[in-house]
């Protein structure tokens, strides 16, 4: 743990860098997280600590922890998970072109300062603070740190609206992106879906027909589903999940980011935040999908949110990915009153499965004036392109018009197979 030389500039508040989450009391960190408008499981102390202790996010893997906290007489006023990055992998906000431009001009782009939970492209609160004034102080402390350590850039990824405001007030640049999220209601209608069949009836005929066909292919292949939540996820289930997870990464030519020790920590320290769907055939597991959960009854927050995170299979069955990663999770969300399902980064194919485009944002501080101007110009053009892209996607909504839905009675579907044990 180190004190920032500029701590005296923060009106008696001490800015400290922590080389590990282990130096910060979990109770204080999680209590601060609970005060934010958009808390997620991925910002919990247990999650971030497991990244370090499992050797998944360390200096050796290019993620050197330097977590920034503002303290006053033992009280944690503001904090953010801060890493010095020696590369841009595992972030899902791509700045490789920026790094190449720096290199061509003989300037160092790395190390850079990054505020985000590692390997986790899910929007949420990043700059934790007791109020807006202290969130602004945290941004100022981050900028001072960059100056003291001669860092050229700082980045806050997938940040909340409160975080965006704090950053833009300090002159940071905003970058817009797109993800695909499902909400438990049709566009323009505040009513929740009563059943999965009710959801299907809200879709255009061809979209509904395609989903039923895909689910039928999986069912006809003899696949059944088992769903386990929290402590009901056994050690054997976690081991099978890791087998699938690692296999998927290696099939794409990459080593898995997260070690087995990380998932062991999740099982022991955050079991209530995980939901596992296991596909079985001939009484043996063949594939799995893992969702993270933010349950507002267990943690503070405005919504119950399920996050699609990882999937993998040891057998190839047509349409299994769509059923296991989208249709079964949506059915579970409807049955358990969850408000939203976030499908992760990228993927236009999600639109046909009723996950609609939503804006995401990152904030960027650029020290070099000329590069800041060039990147600002680039982001202005990029933002217009992203906005146009979103408008085009909206023209392809899979939902029926509100008038058509209102005039259509719900109907059953004997060919729709859902997990028999939704808990």
From TrEMBL:
Signal peptide: none annotated. Keywords: Transferase. Gene3D superfamilies: 3.40.630.30. Residues 397-423 are annotated as: Disordered. GO terms for molecular function: transferase activity. Residues 404-423 have a biased composition (Polar residues). PANTHER family: ACYL-COA. This is N-acetyltransferase. It comes from Lampropedia aestuarii. The lineage of its organism: Bacteria, Pseudomonadati, Pseudomonadota, Betaproteobacteria, Burkholderiales.
């Amino acid at each position: 743990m180190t004190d920032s030389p500029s701590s005296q500039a923060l009106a008696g508040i001490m800015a400290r860098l922590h080389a590990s989450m282990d130096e910060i009391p979990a109770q204080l960190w999680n209590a601060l997280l609970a005060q934010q408008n958009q808390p997620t499981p991925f910002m919990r102390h247990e999650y971030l600590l497991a990244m370090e202790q499992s050797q998944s996010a360390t200096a050796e893997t290019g993620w050197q922890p330097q977590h920034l906290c503002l303290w006053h007489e033992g009280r944690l006023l503001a904090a953010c998970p801060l890493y010095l990055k020696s590369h841009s992998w595992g972030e899902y906000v791509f700045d490789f072109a920026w790094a190449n431009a720096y290199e061509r001009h003989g300037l160092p782009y790395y190390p850079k300062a990054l505020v985000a939970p590692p390997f986790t492209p899910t929007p949420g609160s990043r700059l934790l603070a007791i109020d807006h004034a202290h969130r602004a102080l945290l941004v100022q402390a981050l900028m001072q740190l960059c100056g003291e350590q001669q860092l050229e850039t700082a980045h806050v990824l997938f940040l909340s609206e409160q975080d965006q405001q704090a950053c833009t007030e300090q002159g940071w640049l905003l970058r817009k992106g797109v993800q695909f999220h499902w909400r438990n209601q049709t566009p323009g209608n505040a009513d929740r879906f009563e059943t999965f069949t009710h959801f299907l009836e809200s879709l255009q005929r061809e979209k509904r027909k395609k989903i039923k066909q895909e689910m039928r292919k999986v069912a006809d292949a003899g696949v059944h589903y088992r769903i386990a939540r929290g402590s009901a996820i056994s050690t054997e289930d976690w081991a099978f999940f890791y087998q699938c997870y690692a296999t998927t990464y290696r099939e794409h030519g990459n080593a898995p980011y997260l070690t087995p020790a990380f998932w062991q920590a999740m099982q022991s320290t955050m079991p209530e935040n995980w939901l596992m769907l296991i596909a079985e055939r001939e009484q043996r597991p063949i594939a799995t999908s893992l969702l993270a959960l933010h349950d507002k009854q267990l943690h503070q927050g405005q919504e119950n949110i399920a996050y699609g995170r990882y999937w993998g299979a040891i057998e190839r069955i047509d349409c299994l990915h769509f059923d296991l990663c989208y249709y079964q999770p949506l059915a579970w969300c409807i049955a358990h009153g969850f408000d939203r399902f976030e499908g992760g980064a990228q993927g236009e194919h999600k639109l046909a499965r009723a996950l609609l485009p939503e804006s995401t944002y990152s904030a960027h501080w650029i020290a070099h004036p000329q590069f800041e101007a060039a990147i600002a110009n680039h982001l202005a053009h990029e933002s217009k392109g992203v906005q146009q892209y979103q408008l085009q996607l909206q023209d392809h909504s899979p939902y029926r018009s509100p008038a058509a839905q209102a005039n259509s009675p719900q109907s059953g579907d004997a060919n729709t197979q859902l997990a028999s044990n939704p808990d």
